[in-house]
Write a structure and sequence with these properties.
Elements (H helix, E strand, L loop, with lengths): L6 E5 L4 H12 L4 E5 L2 H11 L3 E5 L5 H15 L2 E6 L14 H29 L3 E6 L11 H21 L4 E8 L5 H9 L3 H9 L3 H6 L5 H12 L10 E4 L17
Parallel strand pairs: 1-2, 1-4, 2-3, 4-5, 5-6, 6-7
């Protein structure tokens, strides 16, 4: 995507899908505001990308911290017209075992962080008169029930916010969409492999959770996700808003109801 004048603000930018999209934007002439709570890695990425990148260490779940990140981007680049609200944390704790503290932590980052990011995008568009586009990282766990209780609840809520923001944003020239990744080769999948004992067997078990993963023996890549984000934030998607695009290797195409392979 060629630079459209404003910068792209990316949360959860230090690694994975956020870093992949940041590299994509800069490679195509754009400028990026890299937001992550991990100061060292996000500054290292900004150093790699050069003067078109600004690193901001911030907590997307904290109102003042999130506002300061947006303000820093506006001060450096003048305007922001693309937002990839990608920051998130996971939890595999079952609902029956979840603590209030654990639940609140997930909701703070994965839901309140999205709320704050969407609000900032809508307010900047209203105040500047500039159109914008937003993509939120949801999850396949936000489109169905799952054994990731707090995470799934947060992602369902994030999708609701995306649809609401799409309606509110339309008169302001703001499009808002979400992606629903599944089994992407990021640090999250590495952590899941470790919980399964690590090594090739653990990787193979996780590859097999998606139709394309079983067929190709791999996860999806962060770069494949970045390409979808690029499309949704670009002019080719000018008539798309309020939707969720799965980037899931076919998970949601699978019928969860399966007959037994053999009789009793």
């Amino acid at each position: 995507m060629p630079d459209s004048g404003g910068a792209a603000l990316i949360t959860g930018a230090a690694s994975g899908m956020g870093a992949a999209f940041a590299r994509h934007v800069v490679e195509h002439g754009g400028r990026v505001v890299l937001v992550d709570r991990d100061a060292g890695p996000v500054r290292a990425l900004a150093d790699e990308l050069g003067p078109k990148a600004l690193a901001v260490a911030a907590d997307v779940a904290d109102e003042s911290s999130a506002a300061a990140a947006t303000a820093a981007g506006l001060e450096r680049f003048g305007s922001i017209d693309r937002y990839f609200l990608n920051a998130g944390i996971g939890s595999a704790t079952p609902l029956i075992d979840e603590t209030v503290e654990g639940f609140d932590r997930i909701i703070a980052v994965d839901l309140r962080g999205v709320f704050l990011g969407l609000r900032a995008a809508l307010r900047h568009a209203r105040d500047s008169g500039r159109p914008a586009a937003v993509v939120v990282t949801a999850s396949t766990a936000g489109l169905s029930g799952s054994d990731l209780a707090a995470y799934s609840a947060a992602k369902h809520g994030a999708i609701a916010l995306v649809r609401t923001a799409a309606v509110e944003g339309a008169p302001l020239g703001v499009r808002v969409n979400a992606i629903a990744p599944g089994s992407i080769g990021t640090p999250l999948m590495a952590a899941m492999e470790a919980r399964l004992g690590g090594g090739p067997r653990a990787a193979a078990l996780l590859h097999a959770t998606t139709p394309l993963g079983r067929a190709q023996g791999r996860y999806g890549t962060a770069e494949e996700v970045a390409a979808v984000v690029d499309f949704l934030l670009g002019p080719a998607a000018s008539w798309i808003t309020g939707t969720v695009v799965p980037v899931d290797g076919g998970v949601l195409a699978t019928d969860p109801y399966r007959l037994p392979e053999t009789g009793p």
